Amino acid sequence: MSTVIIEGGSPLLGTVQVSGTRNSALKLMAAAMFSNDDVILQNVPKMDAIEDDIKMIRVLGGKADWAGAGRLILNGSGITSYEVPLEMGSKYRTSLLMAPPLLFRFGKASIPKYKTRLTVPRPVNRILDVWRSLGVVVEEDEDYYFISSATAVSGHVNFKIPSHMSTDTLIMTAAFLPGETEINNASEECEIDDLIDLINAMGGDVVRSEPRVIKVNGVNVFKGASLEVQPDKTEAVIYAVAALITKGNVVIKNINRNVMVPLVNFFTKIGARYEFEQNSIKIWRHDEEFQATNLTIAPTPGFVPDWQSAATLLLTQCSGIAYVHDTVYTDRFGYIKDLNRMGAKIELLKPSEAGMISVVGDDTYDVERLGEPYTVAKTTGPVKLKGEKLNITDFRYGAVHVLAALIAEGRSEIEGIDVLDCYMENFTSKLKNLGAKIWGQQE
Predict the structure, then answer these.
(1) Is Acetylation one of the keywords UniProt gives this record (predicted)?
(2) CA distance linking residue 256 with residue 236, whole number of Å
(3) For residues 118 and 133, what is the distance between their CA atoms, to the nearest angstrom?
């Protein structure tokens, strides 16, 4: 693993360009495999997760070629195999997104189970349940899901809990099933609208008739198309929080203003200053004091889970006590122990201990067996952080370690910075360009 040294205390100043989001690009790359004609994607981020999917598409026989910065040309006409290799497919849960185009072409697909670095399979029960409700047969062994669409039919699906990737997978599966499939309580994530736009541009018929209702009429021919991948909303949030905690002044370009509403509402409540101009936002802070405010983590259009760790760090720099209640996941506070080692005052509580009603959006969590989860972070601030030796093991909140190091007194040594390279384009380089003092261990 690669290691960097970060010296805290420098305000971030300047302009930064947000890359396209992998959350959109990965599903669009899979959807492109429906077509025997070229599908061109613009604003595709160049990172490990994207490169690994390019390799997977090529191994299956498909085309995936870079044609300039951020421009990717894809074509599924050459696909000859319905089995994703185990070594490739087990690295990411998003490998399941390749199943629908393979089902369209072969009527069957063999997709490896996603395994973490500890080789423990991550739950994908919602996706499997959705497939089975439409007559898709799913069998499995220790390493693979064996999927068949021979008996699949269109129908009505009601999600108990909105699920981003399940909505993606269902849209792509329904895209080729005869008849209409109606998805109720679908995810409202903005990246899903990229998928809808691409499938429609390829000749499909998908309509979001209401915020959480999507109707899909199946077709049997998909043509070539082109689409620009939307900006990465989480990357924008990270730079915005970095500007505030370092008392900097940063212009963040290439943002989607509509999806930033929950963030700027939060900023307004703590007293932060920002200014929109077209597709950019300017964030700055001098010596003004921020006021702590409670925050609820919820699916879109709420304050989404991917922003939770950065917001919690920001609250440690605000005056007073705040409660961050995650109603989506039960396991997204793994970074707290490291922040507390650096000097933060964060206490992990059960909702009832904070006078709140417990909401568990993770249907794989067994409340009866495990009891009420610890899903509330109580922050007390403002605090001064000190440099520490840190290890990034989870990309979902790896960036918060870097942000904390930027404001810590002294130097921090961060191991595993390459984990972030899988999911964000040129992250440390962009921070350096804003004035962050980051260098490799040997420099």
Answers:
(1) no
(2) 9
(3) 31
